[in-house]
Amino acid sequence: MHSFSVTVPSSTGLNLAGTVDMPDSEPVAWALFSHCFTGSRFTPAASRVCKTLAEAGVACLRFDFPGLGQSEGKFEQTSFSMNVDDLVSAYSWLEETFEAPKILIGHSLGGAAALKAGARMPKLTCVATIGAPFDPAHAVLHFADRISEVDENGAVTLTLGGRDVTISKPFLEDLAEINPEAYIPKLRKPLLILHSPLDTTVGIDNAQNIFLTARYPKSLVALDKADHLMTKPGSAQRAARIIRAWADAYLGDQDKDTDPMPEGVARSVSIPAGRYTDLVHVDTDVITTDRERSLGGKGLGLSPTSLLLSSLSAATSQAIRMAAKDKRIRNLENVEVEVSRVVGAPEFAMQLRRRISLTGDLTDGEKKTLLAAAGESCIEKIITGAATIEDRDR
């Protein structure tokens, strides 16, 4: 996958900083991510979930709400309802610029916003929340002792995530008027609720209340051992994999560009993930390749050398087992082949080393027959120069 920056218009005309995480192949679908309260598109839940989904074929847009991250605007002039409108605006921009998203994902208060905005996205097919509160007003409960200052001064400045954030009186009044029991049943989209039972910021009872209020189809999955901000290594990636597997049933036709390659044909297409990265199409499979790091690659996929060694190893094993079948050698139990490149050999005169291990009650004659067959594979004939290459320019 690879990422690039975009500018997304807000519902009020502000420029919002966004990032698109793009699969290296044609996306099977698009997703839109709504980040947490006072967070940004770079928080672990946003960036790691989106990148993992992109690696699984789903393109994702994550953006900073106004006054946060790198977006224009002042946070104290925003509200929960405005964030909902901004999500709808981002949905429209995606539809016009790329493709309408089929998946809407929200983390924490961004999850509550997703639950409210989803009903206004006609081509959306499913919604997933991570650690979302049932009532959006839950976001201010952790500084309830400071709310009285809002009545006195019209706003209160809090230190959240290491920086000062101003919470205005209109922001709190907007939250007070939000009724989740009114908008959650109107979502009418398949809903996946992900929540950690150990979440001390937004308790698991919030997930239970969302589940009870929402209409079917709906699912509640516990993210064991995850913290609210999804900072524990692997927790955000696991959430993304769960979302990807669950959403598969709601993505519709995903096979529009997956016609298999003819047998005996491989096609590579360069991709922008790295200087030397390619997608190699073989049969119905797609393999990402890259050069070795020592040769200027980023290690984003298998190297051509690794693929060659793998091909020779597998082809050798198959040739031995085919010989065992043809010669009726029935006591062969297992074949193990290791192929390695001799370190230090010049690249123009590559030297390979192959070790073959045969397991079974075999006679010396049977072993000799099987080892002789090791050199009969088509891959070995290609490597040793028995094949010719005819180059053609399209």
Helix and strand arrangement:
Elements (H helix, E strand, L loop, with lengths): L1 E8 L5 E8 L6 E6 L9 H12 L2 E6 L16 H18 L5 E5 L1 H9 L8 E5 L17 H6 L1 E6 L2 E6 H8 L3 H4 L7 E5 L8 H10 L4 E5 L12 H13 L18 E5 L7 E5 L2 E5 L14 H23 L5 E10 L10 E9 L3 H10 L4 H6 L11
Parallel strand pairs: 3-4, 3-5, 5-6, 6-9, 9-10
Antiparallel strand pairs: 1-2, 2-4, 7-8, 11-12, 12-13, 14-15
CATH top level assignment of the largest domain:
Alpha Beta
User: Given the structure, what is the number of helices?
Assistant: 11
Q: What string, H for helix and E for strand, traces the elements in order? A: EEEHEHEHEHEEHHEHEHEEEHEEHH
Largest sheet, strands/sense/barrel: 8 strands, mixed
Mean pLDDT: 88
CATH architectural type of the largest domain? 3-Layer(aba) Sandwich
Number of domains: 2
- The CATH homologous superfamily of the largest domain is termed Alpha/Beta hydrolase fold, catalytic domain
Describe the model.
This protein is α/β, with parallel strands linked by helices and about 400 residues long. It has helices at about 45-55, 80-95, 110-115, 150-155, 170-175, 180-185, 205-215, 235-245, 305-325, 365-375, 380-385; strands at about 1-10, 15-20, 30-35, 60-65, 105, 125-130, 155-160, 165-170, 190-195, 220, 265-270, 280, 285-290, 330-340, 350-360. Helix 1 (about 45-55) crosses helix 8 and helix 9 (about 305-325) crosses helix 10 (about 365-375). The radius of gyration is 28 Å and the shape is elongated. It starts with a strand and ends in an 11-residue tail after the last helix.
Short summary:
This protein is α/β, with parallel strands linked by helices and 394 residues long. It is 30% helix and 24% strand.
